[in-house]
Design a protein that fits this description.
By secondary structure, the protein is of the alpha+beta class. Helix content is 53%, strand content 16%. Strands 1-2-3-4-5 form a five-stranded antiparallel β-sheet. Helix 5 crosses helix 7, helix 6 (68-76) packs across helix 7 (85-107) and helix 7 crosses helix 8 (169-198). The longest helix has 30 residues, at 169-198. The termini are close together.
């Protein structure tokens, strides 16, 4: 189940004309999820484990629509304030790269799950929302709740957190980030992330 988390993170934020024109976050998620699922189902290279192609897909489709600075800030919690601006930039870049590797690995492991979209109503003036979806497993597998948290920026809706089965992405990383800072300070956390990225380590949500 772990890889499903990363797959759907990437699916919802592809850059397409329809997604860019969508004014409601649930419309964006539904439209692009369906489109990218179709692409992955037909792409034999990604299905056979072509990581480079998966990375290219993630970089093209995912990165423009995630707020990685806020994600990193939330994952670090109070430790974010200990970092100077230069360190904050490096931390954001390294966290972004770690997630790209995670998403890319997940795309190569897709197994034809389908997505159900729950009712959503955008209130007038609302700029911070939760969009609820559900991963429908084949056979006797239990369906998995998957929620997206988005905020409205000048450039459109941005994802800043995701929950799968009630577990938040930023919370999932928070404990390990805090431990690294306690042991080696901000520079210690940076070195840890750089080491993970150098070895190509992908981290998934814990269950």
């Amino acid at each position: 189940m772990k890889y499903l988390f990363a797959i759907l993170c990437g699916f919802i934020v592809a850059t397409t004309p329809m997604a860019q024109d969508a004014t409601a976050p649930d419309v964006l998620i539904k439209t692009v999820t369906n489109e990218v699922l179709d692409i992955v189902r037909k792409d034999k290279d990604i299905q056979s484990g072509n990581t480079r192609k998966a990375i290219d897909l993630v970089e093209a489709k995912v990165l423009p629509h995630f707020n990685f600075t806020r994600m990193t800030q939330l994952a670090m919690a109070r430790d974010w304030r200990q970092a100077n601006p230069a360190q904050q930039k490096v931390l954001t870049d390294e966290f972004r790269l770690l997630l790209v590797r995670t998403y890319s690995k997940a795309l190569t492991e897709y197994k034809n799950q389908t997505i159900g979209f729950k009712p959503f109503a955008l209130k007038p003036g609302e700029t911070d929302v939760r969009v609820r979806t559900e991963i429908k497993q084949s056979g006797a597998g239990k369906n998995i709740e998957l929620d997206y948290f988005l905020e409205k920026a000048s450039s459109g809706w941005k994802v800043y957190d995701i929950e799968v089965g009630g577990i938040s992405l930023v919370t999932n990383y928070r404990e390990s980030f805090a431990a690294e800072v306690r042991n080696g300070g901000i520079d210690g956390l940076i070195k840890s992330l750089q080491a993970k990225n150098k070895t190509g380590e992908a981290t998934s949500v814990k269950k």
